[in-house]
Amino acid sequence: MITVSAPGKLMILGEHAVVYGRPCLVTAVDQRLSVSAERSDDGKTHVDAPQVKETRFVDAAVSKFFQTKGKALDQTGVRLKIRSDFTHQVGFGSSSAVSVATLRALAILFDTPVDDDEIFQLAYDVTLDIQRVGSGFDIAAATYGGTIAYQKGRPVSSFSHGVPLIVGYTGTKADTPTLIREVAAKRALYPEKVERIFDAISDLVNQGKKSIASGDWELLGKAMNFTQEYLRDLGVSSEKLESMISGAKKAGAWGAKLSGAGGGDCMIAIAPEDKREDVENALVQAGGIVMDVTTHSRGVRVESRDFPVAPATYGVPRTIFLEQAPS
Ligand code: PMV
């Protein structure tokens, strides 16, 4: 038996624009999802996942592994047990985490060297097969972990530290593919205006990169506020998100915005340390739920195993260019 875990994620800046090739900033959170895998001798895949609504992503990840790695599942079977610190409702990316952790667990269980870049690519293929749309930023966070700048298909650079975010959950589940399609429809109607918004969001990501590298949270907050205005223009905010965001700002946050596709899920805020509690109280006042998470969690990793493992099957950690504080 091998147990592998992968982290959930939060989008810091750049959502929606990243679907159209612009960069974004994402951090892995310390709430994780784990996959325990062992061989079974009946040639079947057994999935025990009481916390997840459906097992499409696990099933697709299993098929993808056996198809691409040329192993015949009929010679052996596999038993998978999925456990998670978070539900699929909060928008921390359970589908990506489960795809990534399943692929890494299978690679180790079946003694197949697969590096992190390949795990990322296979899991991204699984998402595209199922959802058709998506930038893959959530898969990058689950695979590589930490806090990274990401551009469709590849992590661009990383940071040596995370961001002290305050996270509020709206209580409503958002449907990411629907929101992506709504933005696509708006872009089809107003191509120039929407492209200008994406460019503006992209500029704010580049500014945010420097703010994170130098730990200038006040400036990062400003980029978050500005981004939120563009996201509102794109039509992806919601009343609940807006009241949590304005509550956080009134309580002293430097900045606040939705995180992810919008429509529900979570918002994030950044505030001076002595205002943190006030901001959290304001989120509760606005009907939200404060999530106890820290950022910059490690990417997919082995938690335990009861058999010897060749180091290559752990995957070679990718070295991503480290952003430095501007001098
Ligand atoms: O809803 P989430 O947390 O999966 O985030 C979606 C972010 C988008 O940019 C809208 C889509 C994507 O795949 O990048």
Which terms would index this structure?
327 residues, alpha+beta, seven-stranded mixed sheet, 9 helices, 11 strands, binds (3R)-3-hydroxy-3-methyl-5-(phosphonooxy)pentanoic acid
What can you tell me about this protein's structure?
This protein is α+β, with helices and mostly antiparallel strands and 327 residues long. Helix content is 40%, strand content 23%. The chain has 9 helices and 11 strands. It has helices spanning 56-68, 94-109, 116-131, 137-144, 176-189, 191-214, 217-234, 239-250, 276-285, and strands at residues 2-13, 23-40, 45-48, 77-84, 147-151, 154-158, 166-169, 255-259, 266-270, 289-291, 301-305. The strands form 2 sheets. Strands 1, 2, 3, 4, 5, 6 and 11 form a 7-stranded mixed beta sheet that branches. Strand 8 (255-259) and strand 9 (266-270) form a beta hairpin. It is globular and about 60 Å long. The site of (3R)-3-hydroxy-3-methyl-5-(phosphonooxy)pentanoic acid has 17 residues, from helix 4 and helix 5.
In short:
The chain is an alpha+beta fold. The chain has helices at residues 56-68, 94-109, 116-131, 137-144, 176-189, 191-214, 217-234, 239-250, 276-285; strands at 2-13, 23-40, 45-48, 77-84, 147-151, 154-158, 166-169, 255-259, 266-270, 289-291, 301-305.
